[in-house]
């Protein structure tokens, strides 16, 4: 039975390894553009403008992490949309017209989501 | 190959890591349904803060005498260590409620336990223990450990795939399982097979 489990496990991993090889090649060909498209598909799309806040965040390892940040930030009146980029540990927050989000509030929201703020910047970011 | 697999499971026990995070974001709800070699479980919890959750728990034993549990579960995140590409957690878990044995005996019952996990986007390890108490169940300590690998790394919104090995040990049984985890956005599903020929199906939804 144990041998059967190991065999099944190995067989399952082979096509997935092949998929990863294809995925890596795709990443190589398209660079950051691919990453941005994927992030936009998952969460609310954050367009890049002078009203965009970018945050580098520690601890982003899975979709539940990204979901937590989306829920917390989208509940704030100043936030129009958010894009979480797991590849670059980057969160792009688009603010509503005339609204601001100071660094202390931003850090508190990220901490309350369960993660740690590393740095922030404003405007367009390539991640 | 077999020795390496068991070594991985043993290593995961030492290193520690996660099954499914028992707390969510503030205001978040999580529904977990698990069927493994040990028990059928339904758990729904609410997280008022990022550090704790409280919810309803139902359990039904899959071996030994028929035991049903209905009660409240409280989980607390004791420590989280965020790094650039990884995260580690230490949790306290507890439950208290009513046991129903063989359809005619009732008494209070529950458990206390600790859980820990470490993961990055490629590797995953977890360990948890559980001390059951109550007059209708044997006071025993059980252990569960996992190690997993993601054969490819997707971004948020992709279908993430994990291949995992799980070891469970209690006074009454020891099992090993191979588990396929599929994860996309708020949905996490697991399908596994265990050395005692039982199947594992777990589903978690977070909203």
Question: What is the strand and helix layout of this fold?
Answer:
The complex is a heterodimer of chains A (127) and B (207).
Chain A: H1 2-42, E1 52-58, H2 63-74, E2 79-85, E3 90-95, H3 103-113, E4 116-122
Antiparallel strand pairs in A: 1-3, 1-4, 2-3
Helix pairs in contact in A: 2-3
Chain B: H1 2-15, E1 28-35, E2 39-49, E3 52-61, E4 67-83, E5 86-101, E6 105-120, E7 123-133, E8 141-149, E9 160-169, E10 174-184, E11 187-194, E12 199-206
Antiparallel strand pairs in B: 1-2, 1-12, 2-3, 3-4, 4-5, 5-6, 6-7, 7-8, 8-9, 9-10, 10-11, 11-12
Alpha-beta classification of chain A: alpha+beta
Q: Calculate the mean pLDDT score of chain B and round it.
A: 88
Strand content of chain B: over 45%
Specify the structural class of chain B: mainly beta
Q: N- to C-terminal separation of chain B? A: 40 Å
Tell me the greatest interface. A-B, 47 and 47 residues
In spatial order, strands of the major sheet of chain B run: 1-2-3-4-5-6-7-8-9-10-11-12
**Mean pLDDT value of chain A:** 73
List the uncertain runs of chain A.
7-45
- Give the assembly state of these chains: heterodimer
Strand content of chain A: 15-25%
What does the main sheet of chain A amount to? 4 strands, antiparallel
- Gross morphology of chain B is globular
If you compute it from the alpha carbons, what radius of gyration of chain B comes out, rounded to the nearest whole angstrom? 17 Å
Number of strands of chain B: 12
């Amino acid at each position: 039975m144990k041998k059967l489990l190991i065999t099944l496990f190995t067989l399952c991993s082979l096509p997935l390894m092949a998929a990863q090889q294809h995925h890596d090649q795709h990443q190589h060909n398209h660079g950051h553009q691919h990453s941005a498209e994927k992030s936009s598909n998952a969460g609310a799309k954050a367009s890049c403008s002078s009203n965009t806040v970018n945050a580098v965040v520690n601890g982003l390892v899975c979709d539940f992490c990204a979901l937590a940040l989306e829920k917390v930030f989208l509940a704030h009146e100043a936030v129009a949309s958010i894009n979480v980029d797991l590849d670059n540990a980057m969160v792009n927050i688009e603010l509503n017209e005339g609204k601001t989000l100071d660094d202390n509030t931003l850090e508190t929201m990220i901490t309350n989501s369960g993660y740690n703020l590393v740095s922030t910047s404003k405007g367009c970011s390539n991640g | 190959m077999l020795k390496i697999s068991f070594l991985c499971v043993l290593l995961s026990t030492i290193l520690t890591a996660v099954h499914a995070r028992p707390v969510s974001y503030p205001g978040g709800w999580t529904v977990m349904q698990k069927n493994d070699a040990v028990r059928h479980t339904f758990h729904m919890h609410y997280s008022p803060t990022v550090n704790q959750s409280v919810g309803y728990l139902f359990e039904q034993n899959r071996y030994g005498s028929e035991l049903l549990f209905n009660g409240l579960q409280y989980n607390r995140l004791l420590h989280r260590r965020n790094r650039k590409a990884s995260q580690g957690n230490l949790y306290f878990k507890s439950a208290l409620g009513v046991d129903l044995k063989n359809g005619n005996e009732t008494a209070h019952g529950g458990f206390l336990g600790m859980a820990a996990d470490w993961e990055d986007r490629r590797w995953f390890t977890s360990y948890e223990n559980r001390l059951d108490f109550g007059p209708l169940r044997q006071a025993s300590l059980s252990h569960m450990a996992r190690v997993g690998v993601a054969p490819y790394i997707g971004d948020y919104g992709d279908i993430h795939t994990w291949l995992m090995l799980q070891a469970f040990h209690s006074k009454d049984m020891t099992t090993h399982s191979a588990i396929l985890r599929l994860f996309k956005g708020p949905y996490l599903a697991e399908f596994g097979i265990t050395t005692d020929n039982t199947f594992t199906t777990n589903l978690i939804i977070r909203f």
